[in-house]
Amino acid sequence: MIDKVRLIKLTRKLIKINSENPPGNESALANFVQGYLKKLGLRVRIYEFQKNRSNLLAYLERPGKRHQLLITPHLDTVCAGKNWRFDPFAATIVGNKIYGLGATDCKANLAVALEAINSLVEDKKYLNYDLILAATADEECGSDLGLIPLLDKKILKPDAALVLDADDFEIIIAQKGLLHLKIKIEGKRAHGAYPYLGVNAIDIALDVIQEAKSHKFPYSRNKYLKAPTINIGTIRGGDKVNIVADWCEFEVDFRFLPGTKAEEILGVLKKILNKRAKKYKLEASSIQQTYTISEKHPLVSCLKKAMRDFAVKPRITGSEGATVITFFQQQHIPAVASGFGTAGCAHSSNEYARISNLYKGAQVLERFLVNYKF
To answer: Residue 350's closest CA among 165, 97, 11?
Structure first.
């Protein structure tokens, strides 16, 4: 049975262990979780792809080869920053809220997962598959030291995955693609009094940006997602006000819908650059393709039923931002994201999680795990 008092104590303990990223050090938190799960009799391993960047894998399994279901929250948080009303590592309780760094993103979900496993073990509830918990590092900075190598190296090979990194019982079944680009335009330096003797890279960059933002990229509407977006995140160039700028560098964030490929956007942008600039460099720093899964998939239908069993209205939705579900797609593993944090709190000062969400979330997750069938 889910123990509310135990769950609250556990959530507070997790918040009090600093796992800010940057600088990035999940080892203390991973070691705590390892000790917690070993006491429950689970087989536990820690993998590191860089010192102190710990990924914890725990296995609730029985003899014989069976299907594997993965549940995966992450260990790291963003940095605390300033303007906190409460100490970000004190896990202060006020009414129905626990305040602290990572309370919503993602220690609430980690606590819920641990409590659900604890309850399964205590009550000796049978699962018709092997359950794997992967509490991963580096999610806040791209997962290059976490979920990506765990999947690429086939350390994780589940048949299906539930990503525990969402808010208020939403079930994410669609996600926008992500394309991050860095573009450097080269011009010709000259005296600012004689701009016609040079080639101003800043002017060229502005023309490229304007044309890219006004271009009508074709896309198919998606009922779970908003229209595609383009954001110029950074821009810098030139050396001095009285010098014609011979360089300009800017970064672009594209978010695109299912049905569009990152390569299509790159192709359009290269045509614009070839038309506007004689010399340029284009670097794709991050590419994540779009993701969709059917609302009829067992992951979705079983989650919906578990939520309704506890009087929670499921919210089928899409993600405008990048979550790790796309990494499973590359390995042909069906995945959805859900979770029990509080919307609007992630990455904010005075972040909190609702205790009622934690308690009901643990009940929902345990019911989902018991009922899920391959």
So the answer is: 97
What fold does the segment set 177-288 form as a domain? Alpha-Beta Plaits (3.30.70)
Domain ranges, ordered by start, for the chain: 4-175+291-371, 177-288
Q: Is 5 exposed, middle or buried (0-12, 13-18, 19+ CB in 10 A)?
A: exposed
Please calculate the CA angle 71-365-374 and round it to the nearest 5 degrees.
65
- Give the pair of three-digit tokens for residue 163: 């990503």
CATH number assigned to the domain covering 4-175+291-371: 3.40.630.10
Place of tokens 């860089």: 50
Distance CA(373)–CA(298), nearest Å, equals: 8
Q: Which of 318, 321, 324 is nearest to 292 (CA)?
A: 318
Which pLDDT value is given to residue 265? 96
How many helices and strands in the chain, by DSSP H and E? Answer: 9, 18
Closest by CA to 174, choosing from 325, 11, 310, 308, is: 325
The C-alpha atoms of residue 6 and residue 217 are separated, in whole angstroms, by 51
In b/e form, how buried is each residue of 23-43, taking b as 16+ CB within 10 angstroms?
ebbbbebbebbbebbeeeebe
Average pLDDT in the 42-48 region? 98
- For the record, the structure tokens of 125 come out as 């509830």
Backbone CA torsion sign across 328, 330, 334, 337? positive
Considering only CA atoms, which of 319, 282, 73, 332 is closest in space to residue 177?
A: 319
> Structure tokens of 361?
């979330």
User: Is 201 in contact with 247 (CB distance < 8 Å)?
Assistant: yes
What integer pLDDT is reported at residue 65 of this predicted model? 78
* Entry pTM: 0.88
Q: Which positions ≥6 away from 196 have C-beta within 8 Å?
A: none
Residue 286 confidence (pLDDT) above 90? no
Averaged confidence pLDDT in the chain: 96
Q: Which residues of 247-266 are buried (b: 16+ CB within 10 A; e: fewer)?
A: bbebbbebbbbbebebeebb
Distance, in Å, from the CA atom of 272 to the CA atom of 46, rounded to the nearest integer, reads 47
Lowest mean pLDDT, pick from 3-17, 228-242, 296-310, 319-333: 319-333
